[in-house]
Design brief:
The complex is a heterotrimer of chains A (about 280), B (about 375) and C (about 325). Chain A has helices spanning about 5-40, 45-50, 65-95, 100-115, 115-130, 140-165, 165-175, 180-205, 210-215, 235-240, 245-280. Chain A is mostly helical and about 280 residues long. Chain A starts with 5 loop residues before the first helix and ends with a helix. The N and C termini of chain B lie far apart (about 65 Å). Chain B folds into two domains: about 1-115 and about 295-365, D-Maltodextrin-Binding Protein, domain 2 (3-Layer(aba) Sandwich); about 115-260, Periplasmic binding protein-like II (D-Maltodextrin-Binding Protein, domain 2, 3-Layer(aba) Sandwich), CATH 3.40.190.10. Chain B is globular and about 65 Å long. Chain B has about 375 residues and is of the alpha/beta class. In chain B, helix 11 packs antiparallel against helix 12. Chain C has one domain (about 55-310): MetI-like (MetI-like fold, Orthogonal Bundle), CATH 1.10.3720.10. In chain C, about 75% of the residues lie in helices and about 0% in strands. A two-stranded antiparallel sheet of chain C has the order 1-2. Classes of the chains: A mainly alpha (about 280), B alpha/beta (about 375), C mainly alpha (about 325). Chains in contact: A-B, A-C, B-C. The interface of A and B includes residues 133, 193 and 244 of A.
Chain lengths: ~280, ~375, ~325
């Protein structure tokens, strides 16, 4: 026995779905709103240019943390993006359903599923412990972040290249262009939008990862003077300040969170609104 | 469109690079009295963190290329990090134990400051004047006294209107020197009421009790949890407005924690520590003495040959500066100045720290 | 071509071969790195594996002084917070996915999709910090304390409720898992054969009935894969949980209440690692290895299903 007529069930379901969507999206707006509202007052010239001082002091800045995040992200991209792109190219163009190819594919997908804390512990065990006499180093942190970039970029590369129609490849063969040039110049050239968006999204993703940096780069109150030393980062800065009882520390943490969100969500919005729709099918 | 995005990204990267280069531009010309440039990482005791972080910051402004970072964690974390060489120095409230001295014979310690541990609580309407004794505190943390209006607490506070609410004791979740001070005080002063033992470990306390990470974490929890009580280093509560109790000392007085009363304990305890640097100064006899006071130590290696020359020089100079020249910063943060007998003791220890066997130069600006 | 006499084709072959092997080398390097993760974790965990035996999985106390390293409470904490969060996320994600595919006007599709993806993009430390500063006080006063007062006789709702709790961890994990399941559900639902949908419509079915009788059954395998993927993410989440879960071994053996503090494997390792030496540290590595195996297994199951589904085998 039906409780509601079919028409009313339809309306009820529609309303329910709308309500759920609003309820689920609202934390996002809430977070963004709160971060902007509480974080913006902390922003001043001093905030961006001074060293990190005692947490209770309101004249502390986050300068070294900003620089540290960019340096570590930069090094991570330097080694993670090329490795990811080349692996993606291999999977898209050269791998032909062999066992070897499925091993590679499984490995790439598994790496995507490794928790960031584990990446950090691995980098700590490999670099900090074995190679660096237990000294904290930003290189280990970058290494862990780079490992997280590889599968993201590889996947984006492979997907973008698969979408390129075979006509192009056949035309290249007809013109006598060697395979490596065909792959690199032509197919990658066409897929470059997808690859770049994958790289940008990966950059945004690792900007928010804290756990890999905790036991590798530790923390440093001062401007980096090299890469083989402990280094500050926005993420660890927020974590350190989160449990402090001082209002100045919390206010500064909100300010840092605002900067982080601006970078991460900014990249995401740009990529998803301006680049992705051109390169994805079925939108 | 794509090229616009790429252009924007390139511009951002160039801007960041320029920012980096501008900010790393050093403005201090080197002289013969300037300390060598070096980066050092240390940390540990959150009990000492407020003054240590002020000192590292001030030292940097005085000596532009010396970057010493102190991480506020817990004494246990500092000790572990020093032992496996991640930190070059550790802040630890407990002195080096006999077992640790055997396992790590190359570690030594200096006293850099002293402070007090308060019993802080969150009772709406009652912001001061709560009197507590060691027995009562012990029973609260052993979950034998469960309500704020328990007769034992009321007996100590006839003038207060204590609510009929369950007490929420909060302890440290990490391996904490403040826990060590607190449990040693209870052990000493509660006449056998405290039976859970002493040490830094959180497993001393009943598992169902709430806990926080670092003095800061406990302070945050006490601030947010009504009817809670926790043991927190004095600076954290004095600077954030959390209420703290008057503790009965050996002389029977209910002493309010303050710079003066903690200083009284320090002065009373200095001769004992001079004889044995590992003596704890909790529950000392004397009038006006705050019973939960303590010295706190910086641990480092006796021979700093494993570091670079610059690092070793800077570390020893920094510690010497803290002990000799910067004690005046302490009182504003509720850390009494070290008595001169302790300063002399420290200078002897610092003087014996070597670099591959050779003495380390202490610059005049940092010397006694 | 075997009949060619041009030198250039050999040269091209050389370039091609070099490039191909370069690509293979990169890919092999990636595999090697993955293996290296296991290897180094295993190396550092070795002393503890023989010392702990099964106790690491079955023991209920972790006491460094006594040399006892039992991690059952935190393993249960990870499984429970991740599992319950995923379960709660399923109907919510499906509702959004259905709304997106069936009811959203086309011009709102991009903004909605962007919002969902942004939910997934927020850094986990910002989630954790916001949960600690904003969500915790509000949830404590408006949800936890009233529930304790009125339903406190039920063990899982019993007090005391201090704020940091398993409950709050579940909430924040749900928020983080929803976009993952939603994204995959949207993709799979979009692949429903048009013919079937049009058939339903021509029979007079409403949109909901179409989804319910055609879309969902068709997509159920893919949705299941998405759910498993979301579960994998929830199991491995660290920073969002560490700040708000209380970090004690309270749950579930001392108190089954959802409002009690507890711990997950990731936040336990994060808090304990800096002060761990010797066997303690090795046991933490062992725990990390266990977590790695669990999350990888979960992820591989999901991806196997997704691969089968995208190749067209829907059952």
């Amino acid at each position: 026995m039906r409780l509601l007529s079919r028409k009313h069930t339809e309306i009820l379901v529609k309303i329910l779905c709308i309500v759920v969507t609003i309820v689920v999206i609202s934390p996002l707006l809430w977070i963004i709103g709160k971060v902007i509202y509480t974080g913006l007052p902390a922003w001043n010239w001093n905030f961006f240019t001074t060293i990190i001082g005692p947490p209770e002091s309101s004249t502390s800045g986050i300068g070294p943390a900003i620089e540290g995040t960019f340096i570590m992200n930069g090094i991570a991209c330097l080694f993670g993006i090329p490795l990811g792109i080349f692996t993606g190219i291999y999977l898209a163009e050269y791998a032909h359903d062999s066992i070897f190819a499925s091993v590679i594919r499984t490995a790439v997908e598994s790496m995507a599923g490794v928790p960031s804390l584990i990446m950090g512990l691995f980098a700590a065990a490999l670099i900090v412990e074995n190679l660096n006499r237990n000294q904290p180093t930003a290189l280990a942190g970058s290494f862990a972040l780079g490992l997280m970039i590889i599968p993201l970029v590889a996947r984006a590369t492979e997907e973008s290249m698969r979408v390129v129609s075979n006509d192009i490849r056949e035309a290249a063969i007809a013109l006598g262009i060697p395979k490596w040039r065909r792959t690199l110049q032509i197919v990658v050239g066409i897929a470059s939008g997808g690859i770049i968006s994958g790289a940008l999204l990966a950059f945004a993703r690792i900007s928010g990862e804290t756990a890999p940096l905790l036991f590798t780069a530790y923390f440093n109150d001062f401007w980096p003077t090299g890469v083989n030393q402990a280094m500050a980062s926005l993420q660890v800065y927020i974590y350190n300040n989160a449990l402090q009882p001082y209002s100045a520390a919390i206010a500064n943490a909100w300010g840092a969170a605002l900067l982080l969100i601006l970078i991460v969500l900014g990249i995401n919005i740009i990529v998803r609104i301006f680049i992705r729709p051109k390169y994805q099918e079925g939108f | 469109m794509l090229y616009i995005i790429i252009a924007v990204v390139v511009v951002i990267i160039v801007a960041v690079a320029a920012y980096v280069v501008i900010n790393n531009h050093s403005t201090t010309p080197p002289t013969n009295n300037t300390l060598p440039a070096a980066t050092l990482l240390g940390g540990g005791s959150s009990f000492a963190a407020p003054i240590m972080q002020t000192w590292t910051s001030d030292f940097y402004f005085a000596n532009n290329q010396v970057q010493i970072t102190y991480e506020s964690l817990s004494s246990g974390k500092g000790q572990a990090a020093l032992e496996n060489n991640t930190f070059q120095f550790a802040g630890s409230d407990p002195p080096i134990s006999v077992a640790q001295a055997q396992a790590y014979p190359n570690i030594t310690q200096v006293i850099e400051t002293c402070g007090g541990v308060t019993l802080s609580y969150n009772l709406p309407g009652i912001h001061s004047g709560l009197n507590l004794t060691a027995q009562v505190i012990a029973e609260i943390f052993q979950l034998n006294i469960t309500k704020w209006n328990d007769p034992q607490i009321e007996a100590l506070n006839p003038g207060l209107n204590l609510p009929d609410q369950t007490i929420a004791p909060i302890h440290r979740s990490d391996s904490s020197g403040t826990t060590n001070i607190f449990t040693n005080y209870l052990n000493d002063a509660s006449n056998g009421t405290w039976v859970l033992g002493v040490g830094t470990s959180p497993s001393i306390f009943p598992t169902s009790e709430a806990s926080g990470s670092g003095n800061g974490g406990v302070a945050t929890l006490v601030n947010e949890t009504t009817y809670s009580i926790g043991y927190i280093e004095f600076f954290y509560v004095a600077s954030t407005g959390i209420s703290y109790a008057n503790i009965q000392n050996q002389a029977g007085e209910f002493v309010t924690p303050s710079l003066a009363t903690i200083d009284a304990a320090v002065v009373a305890g200095a001769p004992l520590v001079q004889q044995n640097i590992s003596t704890l100064i909790v529950n000392l006899p004397g009038s006006g003495v705050y019973p939960i006071s303590s010295f706190t130590y910086v641990w480092l290696y006796k021979d700093l040959g494993y570091l670079s020359n610059g690092q070793a020089t800077d570390l020893v100079n920094f510690l010497s500066w803290c002990v000799n020249k910067a004690q005046g910063d302490g009182p504003a943060l509720y850390y009494p100045e070290l008595p001169s007998s302790i300063v002399t003791l420290d200078n002897n220890i610092l003087g014996n720290i070597t670099y591959n066997g050779a003495a380390i130069k202490i610059y005049p600006a940092n010397a006694p | 071509m075997t009949t060619t006499t041009r030198k250039t084709s050999h040269f091209f072959n050389l370039q091609d071969t070099l490039f191909k092997y370069f690509l293979i080398a990169c890919s092999v390097l990636v595999v090697a790195l993955l293996i290296a993760i296991f290897y180094f974790l295993y190396q550092d965990a070795l002393p503890a594996i023989s010392y702990n035996g099964w106790n690491i999985l079955t023991g209920m106390t972790w006491n460094t002084n006594l040399g006892v390293f039992g991690a059952l409470p935190v393993i249960l904490g990870t499984l429970a917070t991740g599992g319950i969060a995923t379960l709660i996320a399923i109907p919510l994600s499906l509702a959004i996915a259905i709304f997106y595919t069936e009811y959203t006007p086309h011009r709102f599709r991009l903004p909605l999709r962007v919002f969902i993806d942004l939910l997934a993009a927020v850094p986990s430390i910002v989630y954790g910090f916001w949960a600690l500063q904003v969500l915790l006080p509000i949830a404590k006063i408006n949800v936890m304390l009233p529930l304790v007062t009125y339903l406190g006789f039920i063990p899982i709702f019993s007090g005391p409720a201090e704020g940091a709790s398993i409950f709050l961890a579940i909430i924040i994990l749900t928020i983080m898992v929803i976009p993952i399941i939603t994204a995959i559900s949207i993709e799979i639902l979009a692949k429903t054969p048009i013919a079937l949908k049009e058939g339903m419509t021509s029979l007079g079915a409403t949109k909901w009935e179409t989804v319910r009788h055609v879309g969902l059954p068709f997509a159920r395998l893919g949705i299941f894969a998405g759910v498993i993927l979301g579960l994998g993410r929830a199991l491995g989440e660290t920073m969002a949980v560490t700040l708000i879960i209380g970090n004690t071994f309270n749950w579930p053996f001392h108190s089954v209440s959802l409002f009690s503090t507890g711990d997950t494997v990731t936040s336990w390792i994060t808090n304990e690692f800096p002060e761990a030496v010797g066997l303690d540290a090795a046991s933490l590595f062992e725990l990390a290895l266990i977590l790695l195996i669990i999350t990888l297994a979960v992820n591989l199951i999901a991806r196997t299903i997704i691969n089968r589904v995208s190749k067209g085998r829907f059952s």
